[in-house]
Amino acid sequence: MDPVVQFQNVTKAYGQAVAVDDLNLTIQAGKFVTLLGPSGCGKSTTLRMLGGFEIPNSGRILLAGKDVTRLPPNKRNVNIVFQDYALFPHMNVARNIAFGLELKGLDSSAIHKRVMELLALVQLQDYAARMPSELSGGQRQRVALMRALAPDPQVLLLDEPLSALDAKLRQQMQIELKSIQERTGKTFLFVTHDQEEALTMSDQIVVMNNGKVEQMGDPHTLYSRPQSVFVANFIGDANLLRAKVVGADAQGTALTWNGRQVGALPSAHAMKQGDSVLIVVRPEALRFLSVPSGEGFAGKIRKRVFKGNHTSMTIEVDDGSQLNALVHPGESEAISGEDVWLGWNPRAATVIRDESAAG
Ligand SMILES: Nc1ncnc2c1ncn2[C@@H]1O[C@H](COP(=O)(O)OP(=O)(O)OP(=O)(O)O)[C@@H](O)[C@H]1O
């Protein structure tokens, strides 16, 4: 079966500014896929090109195998939900959802059945006759979603649809959106600059930087095996330790860091002895060891900040660099100024090229 979406060498520039740069991206049907990246990296432009609101300067966009690069929005079977999700204020909930179905020329009993089915999906059956002004923000958002899903698009495009909501409602809607996607089996292409939002909902995350795909993968892989400094820093927090490769095979990478032998997972890139690398150690992967051991290293607690369900610690090691550790209750009672022994599980550390190192 053809992938539902394919971008093939797609470039879009506005004057001199290249918004999307030779993008290649394949999306499989039925997945929740998120374009994630900082402001200006080209996420919205990518989404708008798939929606037909922008035409690429070069390259092709295929929808279920068919070239739609130059088709206008109403001639391609996708639908878009924007942040401001403007419902038609003079139409009730049912008529808002029915709008796209009427345009398609469905008969009124088929429309009624589909509207009720969609309202049931978001537990709003009793709200069919309400006007948008009589709904809460979350309810309006659900109606906007159902309106976009009503004509059964091949892909639903969502451009930061939750960013106007307050934090609590936003979290609720993230769970709900994912659940709607699972229940309908539709392909959702979601745009956000919020890494937590992306991790919560996505089957696949496409991390974008400067108009290009930096890395694509499922949330767990992106978090545990970032392949660049950009991804390591953009998704979660990372300690980046300068090290040299001693040896590398399919089982793992042996390294020297700060005069010590340490280990990490095998790298996604080919590595050889002497290569300069960065070890990515997540704050929660640092372990406090009860006694000094050959495997650990010494550090001094410089800062300890209580955060409720965890404590954040800044630890200075003997080369003067500082590491961040995330400590769960009961893991360590070490106080500021105390000397500690630390280590990490090599299965919880990964290695990336040190792009700043010569050679
Ligand atoms: N209509 C336009 N005219 C000129 N430049 C544009 C236009 N739309 C976008 N750009 C530029 O293209 C680049 C990518 O913009 P885009 O909106 O795709 O980024 P984004 O990743 O969605 O950012 P944000 O999260 O801020 O929405 C930016 O540098 C932006 O300034």
UniProtKB/TrEMBL annotation:
The keyword Translocase applies. This is Spermidine/putrescine import ATP-binding protein PotA. Its EC number is 7.6.2.11. One of its GO terms (molecular function) is ATP binding. Belongs to the ABC transporter superfamily. Spermidine/putrescine importer (TC 3.A.1.11.1) family. GO terms for biological process: quaternary ammonium group transport. InterPro entries: AAA+_ATPase, ABC_SmlMolc_Importer, ABC_transporter-like_ATP-bd, Mo/tungstate-bd_C_term_dom, P-loop_NTPase, PotA-like, Transp-assoc_OB_typ2.
